[in-house]
Design goal:
single chain, 730 residues, alpha+beta, 5-stranded antiparallel β-sheet, 25 helices, lysosome
Length: 730
């Protein structure tokens, strides 16, 4: 058997670019069929799960396997002219044929003793073996169709006895026996009847309407039992679905009626002439040829195989495939046949010179078609649903040839070919998950196009799924060459245990030799890499070279406080707040050494001592703070500090304030020293604040001080004596 793509058997020249997913796949039978068709042509077919029987124009019966190979010794010369019909019993042990030569032939495939040839001397168009013929006894019976419907059965003595079951209006054109042997459907020129074998009665006539110019006699009636109670009829251009149902007890009591009746539940008109009919789950498979106007020398159209959904008197085409059968141009509707293996959903389409087997796409077929049409997401969706137990009901529910990984790899290759690198990277996470081997096998595809950056966010880096260190190093090297910021981000993000840190350090150093841009990013990365290798001196050197504040994180993380002493000013320049916080919180250096180190930079010293004093109440460095406050924050801090502290030399503080002419501070210090007279003069003459002077005198409550105030006010503006008068209530 050779399998081909769907296009080998279909033709649709106006098909759109967005192809519709097919429902059926096709296989052309070849092998020994080639030589058979070279000598003759097929007239009918009967299929069994074990084999195929093909009838020919020469009167031969060819018994073949399902691949088209002849079964040795099973070619039978049964008739002198074309074989009209073949029937096989349920067990595949007996076949029966009939022909226009008037003969009926029953052949045992395993014993010549049970062979039978019957010459009726009239045209025999159809035959049906009892499905249980192989059991022998009363089951050794068959029915023929000519001018009558005749049952042949064995008598008590073993003789063959014919019994006319029904007289026919014209020839019996076709028949079909249910698998349980209870009912037989048959057709004549006027319609279809169903015969109850057990009750030996007809259940009535389903009359077939003739359309103008289309006599039913010109068309073969196609009968098929979908099950023991459902009859499918396809005749001319009409489909009927009939149900055999049992009459109610009331119906049977009041009238002399058969126990069963035939109920046509659906009648559908088609746009084509019907060559065959078969069930497919809750759908129908129809073989037919399109209706075309007759013209001289016109070629016949391609036969088509349809899947239709029917409901009541309406149907919808699910798919319609045009079949490129050999020499189809020469054949009409009655030259084609359709048979089916119901349990396997295999449909055998027969033309005089061709046999093609159609079967529904299973999950693997659907997935393969989707792959070939670049519909990878749909294919993956089918696989995911199948894994979750939600697969399609058509064909096998678990794919045999495809997995999420195999389809995913094909999808990955497609995306890389299309240049969709970022999408390809995201796909890897979905497909490979924690399969380290798959990651390692496929990631080289990104390396070959220099797009490891597209997959790097998704590669596994956890302890339960870790790749070969070489993989991570490859990615880092690509970033090193092409994306400095990305390289730095990975160095920060990735666990250094994933790769050889020394090898990466060497690569960075080599890269820096010829690097003209983004040097700071590479130096920062070096600082981190050195810290991973516990080369903290080099790491600190890199950070300080960059003036990068992460140096403080490094110091705290690795307890490197001892390095601060030698580079204290450098650290203060970088971030004095963080430096002071380290000095005060961890106290890695005695305060005296810090003061000594910072005395050359008064601003740094001021900042340190200002924070130091907040945490130390002993006033150790208040002497130094007075001069520093006087320089850097006299307005907010000097006077409050002088009033609060008891740990500074007052005269030295006064000298500083006198030098800078800080009069409010001088007033406070003079008052504290007892030199109230000079303090009052500063208030009056320098500050020119009469209210302050009065308050000062009141505070010290000294008669001499009041006299000095009054004397100083004599030559002052009128407001001064006026304020004094209010004090003394004059």
């Amino acid at each position: 058997m050779s399998e081909h793509s769907l296009n080998d058997y279909t033709s649709d020249p106006e098909s759109s670019e967005d192809e519709i997913e097919p429902k059926l796949k096709y296989v052309r039978l070849s092998n020994d069929l080639k030589s058979i068709f070279h000598k003759s042509s097929a007239t009918c077919i009967a299929v069994h799960p074990k084999f195929i029987c093909l009838g020919s124009h020469c009167g031969y019966i060819h018994i073949l396997d399902h691949q088209g190979n002849s079964i040795q010794g099973k070619q039978l010369k049964a008739h002198t002219v074309s074989i009209n019909h073949i029937s096989i019993d349920a067990n595949g042990e007996f076949i029966a044929t009939c022909s226009d030569d008037g003969r009926v032939f029953v052949h045992s495939l395993f014993s010549k003793e049970n062979n039978l040839t019957l010459n009726l001397g009239r045209l025999v168009k159809t035959i049906a073996l009892d499905p249980c013929y192989y059991k022998g006894g009363a089951n050794r019976r068959f029915i023929t169709g000519d001018n009558n419907l005749t049952l042949y059965e064995r008598t008590f003595l073993g003789n063959l006895k014919p019994v006319v079951l029904c007289e026919s209006e014209g020839l019996v054109r076709s028949m079909c026996w249910t698998s349980n042997g209870n009912f037989l459907a048959w057709s004549s020129n006027v319609g279809v009847r169903v015969y109850d074998i057990n009750s030996r009665c007809s259940l009535g006539l389903i009359k077939w309407e003739e359309h103008s110019g289309m006599s039913t006699e010109r068309f073969r009636c196609n009968l098929r039992w979908a099950d023991e109670k459902t009859l499918l009829i396809g005749w001319v251009d009409t489909v009927r679905v009939c149900i055999i149902r049992k009459r109610s007890a009331i119906e049977l009591a009041n009238r002399d009626l058969p126990e069963y009746l035939v109920d046509p539940v659906s009648t559908v008109q088609t746009e084509f002439f019907i060559s065959g009919i078969a069930p497919l789950d809750q759908q129908l498979v129809l073989l037919g040829i399109p209706k075309v106007p007759e013209a001289e020398d016109s070629q016949s159209p391609r036969p088509q195989l349809y899947i239709v959904e029917y409901r009541d008197n309406d149907c919808v085409d699910v798919c319609a495939d045009s079949l490129s059968l050999r020499d189809y141009q020469e054949y009409g509707v009655n030259d084609y046949h359709l048979d089916v293996l119901l349990g396997e959903n295999q449909f055998f389409v027969v033309a005089p010179k061709d046999v093609v087997v159609a079967s529904p796409y299973d999950l693997d077929d659907r997935i393969q078609w989707l792959i070939e049409h670049s519909k990878f997401e749909d294919a993956l969706d089918i696989l995911r649903r199948s894994e979750n137990g939600n697969g399609s009901n058509v064909g096998n529910t678990v794919p045999q040839r495809h997995t999420v990984q195999t389809v995913g790899i094909e999808y990955l290759d497609h995306l890389l070919r299309e240049g969709q690198y970022d999408e390809a990277g995201r796909l890897c996470l979905r497909i490979f998950e924690k399969d380290a081997q798959l990651w390692e096998d496929q990631i080289y595809k990104f390396a070959s196009v220099h797009r490891l950056r597209s997959v790097s966010p998704y590669i596994p880096r956890t302890s339960d799924c870790k790749l070969n260190p070489h993989i991570y190093e490859m990615i880092l090297y690509e970033y090193l060459k092409l994306d400095a910021q990305g390289f730095l981000d990975l160095v920060k993000e990735w666990d250094p245990a994933l790769y050889n840190v020394c090898a990466v350090i060497n690569a960075v150093l080599e890269h820096l030799l010829n690097c003209e841009v983004n040097k700071n990013l590479y130096v920062e990365a070096l600082a981190i890499l050195y810290s991973y290798e516990k080369m903290y001196d080099k790491s600190l050197s890199m950070y300080l070279k960059l003036k990068h504040k992460d140096v403080f994180t490094l110091i705290e993380k690795h307890n490197l406080y001892s390095v601060i002493e030698d580079m204290l000013t450098t650290f203060m320049d970088l971030d004095y707040k963080k430096t002071i916080a380290l000095l005060l919180d961890k106290q890695p250096i005695p305060s005296g050494i810090v003061v000594e180190k910072l005395k050359s930079n008064k601003l740094h010293l001021y900042r340190f001592l200002d924070e130091y004093d907040k945490k130390n109440i002993k006033g150790k460095y208040h002497r130094e703070l007075i001069s520093l406050y006087a320089i850097f924050d006299r307005e907010n801090k000097l006077l409050p500090f002088l009033k609060k502290s008891e740990h500074y030399p007052i005269q030295e503080a006064l000298n500083i304030c006198q030098k800078e002419k800080y009069y409010p501070e001088m007033v406070y210090l003079l008052g504290r020293m007892g030199d109230t007279k000079e303090a009052l003069e500063l208030i009056i003459n320098e500050l020119k604040d009469m209210q302050h002077a009065i308050s000062f005198c009141q505070e010290h409550d000294d008669q001499d001080l009041w006299e000095d105030l009054i004397n100083n006010c004599v030559d002052k503006p009128a407001s001064y004596p006026e304020k004094l008068s209010r004090v003394f209530h004059i």
